[in-house]
Write a structure and sequence with these properties.
Length: 607
């Protein structure tokens, strides 16, 4: 049977009759049919067979299948009317019904095996005339008191209120109280509260850490709820039984059915509170998918809220402290189920990201990625981190992007998402830096050696100094030219000395082989193409007069005297000279500024 057949058969006239009983419209709904079809097809074969067993005319006991359909319709009604019904929530409803049906079948098999074991295989049936009992002349009605009494004993218990060891149902191993009593060190009353219903089955509770957290919150809520009722002279158990007695059943119903329905009705009180605790844990663990938490008997929902629901909600809203933080295994499973769960924490951290806390937030993002190693969208975390860190920490941004490349290479589908051009310009100030990154990225793709790629990131932003090779021949030629100039000047000056001696004045001029000293900026002649203003020329003169080195404080004082900014003045000089030198003229060295003497000689005109 496929999903379409199941939807059309199960949600046909019986579903319409159920809606009519509540005074609702009964028009066909293609959206409902499509949702049920997809949910049914998503079940495995064994679960599909269980669900197919509730269809009318499939061979099951008519009354049993009818009650199962009514439970299914009741569970579907609220999300259907509120338009919150989805394939996921429909599957959850199916799983609960399947769990109930399997439990019924299991109990029936156990009962059959117990009866069979009690009958001796070699028993001989006495068929003599003395063994025949005449029942034709006397009416002997069947007495159901034994059944009712046994059911009452199983419900209330002889050893104490909410004792998990009372009643046949309470001893079943699949109930949470029995399963976790020893593990969590539960008291008899705590185990009894958990044994009031069969173990809910869904993907969230299948994670043990989530199940234990829900159990702890549920028990915390039950204690608070019981304490609040005791202040009014009531108890939770008594109120639940009084609420159970409100259930109205047909007067001609089978006594066994009456007992079963009343127990199920009371069980739903505790199960509804448990579901609300589960939703609170889901919210606290940032698991967006929620389960239905309305009381399943719609006719009694308002009374339930008045008796238990409103107080339960109030307690849960103030009970986050009772929920344990998820451990690593729980985080891994939650992130695997909810692939976008990481976004809430990530967005919160990134909103406060700045240069001062970049290292701290990078550590948090790294731990977040480690908790998402089983998440199929892990690469998106690295990619978004790379974009966010580009404005505050270039190296960290590149590291996160290399992580993205590495993770993308190991994913089922390689997306190869590129960083935007604006981010690239922000990360790489020059073509050399971009090329260095491309080399590292290509090596990572070829070798898949992530540690080596991460180690090489620092080389991208290393300050590279140009190596200068001096031409000895050119230097010697300049020296020769300079010597000839000095000799020529000496001849000229000697002639002037002779003329001046006749006037009675004696002047001595000493010349050196070094470059002629320039006393002021007005005598400095710069090469063609340098457009330096007076402030820039004066600072260069100041450097020249101090052996091409000035303390940072002196440069600051000079800039302030000209009403300029120090960095702006230095950078403007370097920018003007860059085309001529293909390098910077003035560099910062610790607490000083150094002017390259060789470059200075290149920008002044010696002739």
């Amino acid at each position: 049977m496929n999903g379409l057949t199941f939807a059309a058969t199960t949600f046909g006239k019986d579903w319409f009759s159920h809606l009519q009983a509540y005074g609702l419209e009964t028009a066909a709904n293609s959206w409902l049919e499509k949702t049920i079809t997809q949910a049914y097809d998503a079940l495995d074969t064994a679960d599909q067979q269980v669900m197919a067993g509730i269809i009318p005319g499939t061979g099951g006991v008519a009354y049993v299948t009818c009650r199962l359909r009514e439970r299914l319709y009741d569970a579907m009604l609220e999300p259907f009317l509120s338009q919150r019904l989805s394939v996921y929530s429909t599957k959850e409803i199916f799983y609960e019904l399947i769990s109930t049906r399997k439990e019924q079948v299991s109990l029936l098999q156990q009962h059959t095996e117990a009866v069979t074991a009690a009958e001796p295989e070699d028993a001989i049936i006495d068929v003599t005339e003395d063994a025949i009992i005449d029942i034709t002349s006397e009416e002997r009605p069947i007495v159901y008191d034994t059944v009712s009494e046994a059911a009452t004993t199983a419900d209330t218990g002889a050893a104490g209120e909410d004792d998990p060891d009372n009643g046949a149902y309470e001893e079943e191993s699949w109930k949470l109280g029995h399963k976790y009593k020893a593990t969590l060190g539960l008291s008899s009353q705590e185990a009894g509260w958990l044994n009031k219903f069969f173990n809910p089955c869904n993907s969230f509770l299948a994670v043990e850490g989530c199940c234990i957290a829900t159990i702890r919150l549920y028990l915390h809520c039950m204690k608070k709820l019981n304490a609040a009722l005791m202040k009014k002279g009531k108890t939770l158990s008594k109120e639940a039984k009084l609420f159970r007695d409100l259930l109205q059943l047909p007067s001609n119903a089978n006594p066994y059915t009456v007992t079963y329905e009343r127990q199920n009705f009371e069980s739903q009180i505790y199960l509804t509170i448990f579901k609300r605790a589960e939703n609170a844990v889901r919210e606290f663990y940032q698991h967006k998918r929620k389960i239905g938490q309305a009381f399943p008997f719609a006719a009694y929902a308002a009374r339930f809220e008045k008796a238990f629901g409103a107080l339960t909600t109030e307690i849960l809203n103030d009970s986050d402290h009772a929920i344990p933080l998820p451990d690593r295994e729980t985080e891994l499973q939650l992130n695997k189920m909810n692939v976008n769960r990481w976004k809430a924490s990530f967005d919160q951290w990134v909103s406060t990201l700045n240069e001062n806390n970049a290292a701290q937030i990078a550590d948090q993002v790294t731990r977040l990625c480690a908790a998402n190693v089983q998440n199929d969208t892990l690469e998106n975390i690295y990619y978004e981190a790379s974009k966010s860190f580009a404005r505050v920490d270039k190296e960290m941004a590149v590291r996160f992007y290399l992580h993205y490349i590495y993770t993308d290479l190991h994913s089922e589908k390689i997306d190869n998402r590129q960083l935007g051009k604006t981010i690239q310009k922000n990360l790489f100030a020059s073509t050399e830096q971009l090329q260095a990154f491309e080399v590292i990225a290509n090596q990572l793709i070829a070798s898949k050696d992530l540690p080596a790629a991460l180690t090489a990131v620092a080389t991208i932003y290393e300050k590279k100094r140009r190596r200068i090779n001096l031409d000895d021949a050119a230097i010697a030629a300049v020296r020769d030219l300079n010597r000839e100039t000095v000799e020529r000047l000496n001849v000229i000056l000697q002639e002037d000395e002779e003329e001046m001696a006749t006037a009675g004045e004696e002047i001595t001029i000493q010349l050196h082989s070094a470059a002629p000293a320039v006393s002021s900026t007005e005598n400095i002649v710069f090469v063609t193409g340098l457009d330096l203003n007076d402030h820039q020329r004066d600072l260069l003169t100041l450097f020249r007069d101090n052996d091409c080195s000035l303390p940072a404080g002196e440069v600051i004082s000079y800039a302030r005297s000209r009403k300029l900014f120090k960095n702006q003045l230095i950078e403007s000089i370097n920018d003007c000279c860059y085309e001529q030198l293909d390098d910077i003229l003035i560099e910062e060295a610790e607490d000083r500024y150094e002017m390259n003497a060789f470059y200075y000689q290149k920008i002044i005109n010696l002739c």
